[in-house]
């Protein structure tokens, strides 16, 4: 069993849910991003955004690996930073396109 944090653009929420379920049913402990009730970052204060980013880094820190949901090979700037952070911690980086 691995602890895996899911990373990627929330525009791919459907794919995130599907791959998270698949990997959980293979015996992995999946940590998903928080699902925000507001649709854009501008609806939150800068302090809230920074706190949520810090919490996501903590999720990566306690994980064995991250799963990058890279539909159509799309990786945004925030996800790229998460990949770099995970690599700096010597975490395994898995990609959605490789897990199908």
Explain this structure to me?
The chain is of the alpha/beta class. Helices cover 46% and strands 18% of the residues. It is built from four helices and four strands, in the order E-H-E-H-E-H-E-H. It has a four-stranded parallel β-sheet with strand order 2-1-3-4, sandwiched between helices. It starts with a strand and ends with a helix.
Spatial shape: globular
Largest sheet report: 4 strands, parallel
Q: Roughly what percent helix?
A: 40-55%
Number of distinct helices: 4
The overall pLDDT average reads: 92
- Structure class: alpha/beta
| Percent of residues in beta strands | 15-25%
Query: If you compute it from the alpha carbons, what radius of gyration comes out, rounded to the nearest whole angstrom?
Result: 13 Å
List segments where confidence is low: pLDDT < 50 over at least 5 consecutive residues. Answer: none
């Amino acid at each position: 069993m691995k602890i895996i944090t899911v990373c990627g653009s929330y525009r791919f929420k459907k794919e995130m849910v599907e791959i998270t379920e698949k990997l959980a049913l293979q015996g992995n402990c999946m940590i998903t991003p928080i699902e925000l009730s507001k649709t854009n970052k501008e609806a939150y204060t800068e302090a809230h955004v920074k706190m949520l980013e810090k919490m996501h880094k903590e999720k990566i820190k306690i994980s064995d690996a991250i799963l990058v949901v890279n539909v159509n090979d799309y990786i945004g700037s925030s996800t790229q930073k998460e990949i770099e952070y995970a690599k700096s911690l010597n975490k395994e980086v898995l990609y959605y396109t490789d897990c199908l």
